[in-house]
């Protein structure tokens, strides 16, 4: 651990203090843009589309790509590359296909601030908007995954107890998101993206002196992995989540669908003009390419250097300490911490804005003794969103107290449940004019419920296959229910493609 060197320990502490100070300052600067619900949720038009694209990529990455997936690579070998390569290629293709139509719908509906609100307006259904906002609460488990990743870094590298690592991460994120909302989140994520890209590149460059072999470094790495266990170099692993061709195909489906996650699609809603989509998608693709395809290789190299780690999730921090001089290692550790925070802040923003905008704002008028003016409702929903930061933070802290067996599995469970529920309503809402609110609600309930049932009751062992089957069933249910109920609703909101 870094605690073996007092100089190195204090270097990390000073860098972290400076980093936390900087993001808090950005949060204060963003206060002017977070005085309305729309400003707090999206900061529409206030941030450069290039920076919004980088924010999309860094929010996508999270502790999963910097800690969890390298941990799976450490455990299961090169078969995990199917996941990390798909993160850039398949997910970026999904972004290119979905972003323009999603933005155009948002423009057509007016000033839409969240994905639940987008779906609610697409299907003219407040009930659907509320149900999607409740489904988004699964992201609390995603936040828990980030807390665990951050605490693992603090514990492994600096020696800070696990609990205090969680408390520090939760506290600092709540402060700057509460102050600056989406503006602070996207600005800080842009800065974090630069640190993450540098860290990822340095990991691969270090193979030249840790693995050896010169230009044949990857051949040497493969040979050394094969010597430990031939299964570590197999295209399809004998165990784990990448143990069949069907599982690998399901992974690609999940990665294609992942860009529909609410905390990611909100970035599209932050763009003011359609012309901003080009720099946004280009920036997102470039940053995502670097940070998604390089870090997992560090997990493979760590297996060669430390073949018997007690926790696979500690592979990357241990590798960084071993591979680099003290000062560079300290900078890279801060880069990894920023990777975790870049997704955590986006998730907090997504959950809390949904609580304020899609739960309170929709439900409150039904329970009020007298009519609430639009201005008062706006102010109240913003207060609810900001105060719910504390509640969500405390809940995630409580759920983080017991360390999960696998960080990657916990995170993938949370977002797969959400995707299983929303993928059919979003996708069919684009292309099928018979898609209606009855079908969307039935699809959401079916997809999410099936996924939770399959995984919690261990009816399907592979979480990716469980998501694929749940999503496919959701598509079928939405198609059938929409056709059966088509006579009860008149909806033809499909956007015509411009020539």
Automatic annotation (TrEMBL):
<dbReference type="GO" id="GO:0006814">
    <property type="term" value="P:sodium ion transport"/>
</dbReference>
<feature type="transmembrane region" description="Helical">
    <location>
        <begin position="195"/>
        <end position="221"/>
    </location>
</feature>
<feature type="transmembrane region" description="Helical">
    <location>
        <begin position="438"/>
        <end position="454"/>
    </location>
</feature>
<feature type="transmembrane region" description="Helical">
    <location>
        <begin position="407"/>
        <end position="431"/>
    </location>
</feature>
<feature type="transmembrane region" description="Helical">
    <location>
        <begin position="241"/>
        <end position="261"/>
    </location>
</feature>
<keyword id="KW-0472">Membrane</keyword>
<dbReference type="GO" id="GO:0005886">
    <property type="term" value="C:plasma membrane"/>
</dbReference>
<dbReference type="Pfam" id="PF00474">
    <property type="entry name" value="SSF"/>
</dbReference>
<dbReference type="InterPro" id="IPR050277">
    <property type="entry name" value="Sodium:Solute_Symporter"/>
</dbReference>
<dbReference type="GO" id="GO:0015293">
    <property type="term" value="F:symporter activity"/>
</dbReference>
<feature type="transmembrane region" description="Helical">
    <location>
        <begin position="123"/>
        <end position="142"/>
    </location>
</feature>
<feature type="transmembrane region" description="Helical">
    <location>
        <begin position="47"/>
        <end position="68"/>
    </location>
</feature>
<keyword id="KW-1003">Cell membrane</keyword>
<dbReference type="InterPro" id="IPR038377">
    <property type="entry name" value="Na/Glc_symporter_sf"/>
</dbReference>
<comment type="similarity">
    <text>Belongs to the sodium:solute symporter (SSF) (TC 2.A.21) family.</text>
</comment>
<feature type="transmembrane region" description="Helical">
    <location>
        <begin position="318"/>
        <end position="341"/>
    </location>
</feature>
<keyword id="KW-0739">Sodium transport</keyword>
<keyword id="KW-0406">Ion transport</keyword>
<feature type="transmembrane region" description="Helical">
    <location>
        <begin position="162"/>
        <end position="183"/>
    </location>
</feature>
<keyword id="KW-0813">Transport</keyword>
<dbReference type="InterPro" id="IPR001734">
    <property type="entry name" value="Na/solute_symporter"/>
</dbReference>
<keyword id="KW-0915">Sodium</keyword>
<keyword id="KW-1133">Transmembrane helix</keyword>
<feature type="transmembrane region" description="Helical">
    <location>
        <begin position="80"/>
        <end position="103"/>
    </location>
</feature>
<feature type="transmembrane region" description="Helical">
    <location>
        <begin position="282"/>
        <end position="306"/>
    </location>
</feature>
<keyword id="KW-0769">Symport</keyword>
<keyword id="KW-0812">Transmembrane</keyword>
<feature type="transmembrane region" description="Helical">
    <location>
        <begin position="460"/>
        <end position="484"/>
    </location>
</feature>
<feature type="transmembrane region" description="Helical">
    <location>
        <begin position="6"/>
        <end position="26"/>
    </location>
</feature>
<protein>
    <submittedName>
        <fullName>Sodium/panthothenate symporter</fullName>
    </submittedName>
</protein>
